[in-house]
Structures are given as structure tokens and as C-alpha cells.
Amino acid sequence: xxxxxxxxxxxxxxxxxxxxxxxxxxxxxxxxxxxxxxxxxxxxxxxxxxxxxxxxxxxxxxxxxxxxxxxxxxxxxxxxxxxxxxxxxxxxxxxxxxxxxxxxxxxxxxxxxxxxxxxxxxxxxxxxxxxxxxxxxxxxxxxxxxxxxxxxxxxxxxxxxxxxx
Length: 165
Hints:
The chain is an alpha/beta fold.
């Protein structure tokens, strides 16, 4: 069940269509032995960037799907960030949320809630973050994201659903 507030400027965006593209990236990451998390950046109805978790391949704890999508955004993201939307299959961690804020991307749409990171609290309570994020909306195709996590990394799924307990 989606939750959060959806900015009126996103009213005509097919959230499920774009989340399916992020899920495609998550599936590819899982097949490659990575954490099955995917992200895309959309600008004016067009996917301008894709990312997937690549911790193992890059030997870096920083190679999160969202960060990779941001780094792959190139000139279009640099120039038109104010209209960009990040779609990600799992709620962004604090590092990724911070990167989105610093990239001035105003809209975050995610599938699976993460009870460990619970970044929504930061969005709701931190005035600096609130000034940057217009939309923080979760639960879009959450079931599908859960299935991908269960298939490739069931222990990670349990961890994020139980808050690490």
C-alpha cells in the first residue's frame, strides 16, 4: 500500500511503469550475485539513468543502486535536476537520501519500506531535507520488490522487515 505524499506535479506519471524498470535493474543485480536493488532516474517521462547495487563487483560498500543512478545521470541530470524523479526498489538509506538531497532531486518514489534505515523520519523531521524533497512516496509495487529480495537475498529481506532485530 503506497504511503507518503505525492506532489501534484507527479499526478500524471505512471509510477508503476517506471518502478517496473527499477525492478528490472534489481533483478539484474540479483542475477549477478549483488544485492537485488535497482534504481532509475526519470526526467520529463524519459529514463535518463539506471543503477543497480554493485558492491561485490566494485568492491565498495558505497556502490548502492541509487548512488550509481545518480552518478550515471550525466549532463541531463546536471542541467534539469529540478524535474527529476528517483525510483528505487528499496527505501533509500541515509547515504542515498543525502546524495539525492545534494543532487537536488525533488522526488523520491520507492517500493519496499526498510525498517532499518527508515529514512522517512529524516524527511519528516529534518528541515534541510524537507526543503529539498517535495515527494517521498513509498509502497509502489512493494510486493514485487519483496519477491525479488526473497528470491536472491532472503536474509536481507528479513533484516529490513524486522528492523535488524
